[in-house]
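Note to self: keep these together.
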Amino acid sequence: MTRKLYYTQRSPYARKVRIVLAEKQLPCELVETDIKRKSPEFLSLNPIGKIPVLVDENGLTFWDSTLIVEYLDETYPHPPFYPRDRLEKLRCRQGEELADSLIDRVVALWYETGKAPKADEQLQAYYQQEIDRLLFVLENKLDFSSYLLNDQFTAVDVAAVSGLGYYTFRFGKNWQLRYPKLTRWFERLHQRPSLQSTLPKA
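Structure:
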């Protein structure tokens, strides 16, 4: 059975999974999915109707990007994206949740911006404030290590770089003026083939 990932090319949630698949060198058929007009086939795989959805070679089906990344890491452990130590893994999951929250707010800001001329400016300002607050937290994490959890490329970095990549794609690079350590980290990570091959495209 062929491994399949149901995705959209610009989705930062799907990008998380695509980066991990590429880093682990796991072949995968990418199935572009229309999330506005969901097919019965897609809804049979994921009743909540969200991307990404992974159907693995063994027939197992998973949705939710964080769950998929954890499944891939446990099933195909090299290279690892979560520490094997229990407490360190919990710290990694916590950092990943922080980065996922960044993604959620960037996506929410983009959707709200797209409602013009009926966009809620106060709500946009709230989302932007939340994004800035989370970027400040991530910036400070780089005071202590070369990556966001430790000195290894982990699931925290995958989620955060996907969120910042989407933010950059939608809103440009002005954020780099305020967060120099994140900027260096972001540019260094984008030298990896897994990041280059998964860039969101207009």
